[in-house]
Amino acid sequence: MPTWLILICVIAYMAILFVIAWRRDRDASQPSFTQSPIIYALAIAVYCTSWTFFGAVGTAASSGWDYLP
């Protein structure tokens, strides 16, 4: 896969996350903000994805091939 394509995908993904966070931060004063299941699901997804990624990289770096099973 070309490097430029990976970079475009990463930048697009981060831009989408930034726009979602910016819009929700702007609308945070509304009472329905804390009751939105979509925003809650997105927040949990970002949180779990980051911990899974960093945990997997750390395990693979320290364990080597033992990480695969």
Any overview of this molecule?
The chain is about 75% helix and about 0% strand. The protein is mainly alpha-helical. The longest helix has 27 residues, at about 35-65. The radius of gyration is 17 Å and the shape is flat. The two termini are about 25 Å apart. The model has no long low-confidence stretch (mean pLDDT about 80).
Feature tags:
single chain, 69 residues, mainly alpha, 2 helices, flat
Give me the secondary-structure topology.
Layout: H1 3-26, H2 37-63
Strand content: under 5%
Round the Cα radius of gyration to an integer and report it.
17 Å
Sheet bearing the most strands, described? none
- Poorly predicted runs: none
Kindly state the mean pLDDT as a whole number? 79
- Percent helix, as a range, is over 70%
Strand tally is 0
How many separate helices? 2
The secondary-structure class comes to: mainly alpha
Q: What is the element string, with H for helices and E for strands? A: HH
Shape: flat
* First-last Cα distance: 26 Å
Short description:
By secondary structure, the protein is an all-alpha fold. 74% of the residues lie in helices and 0% in strands.
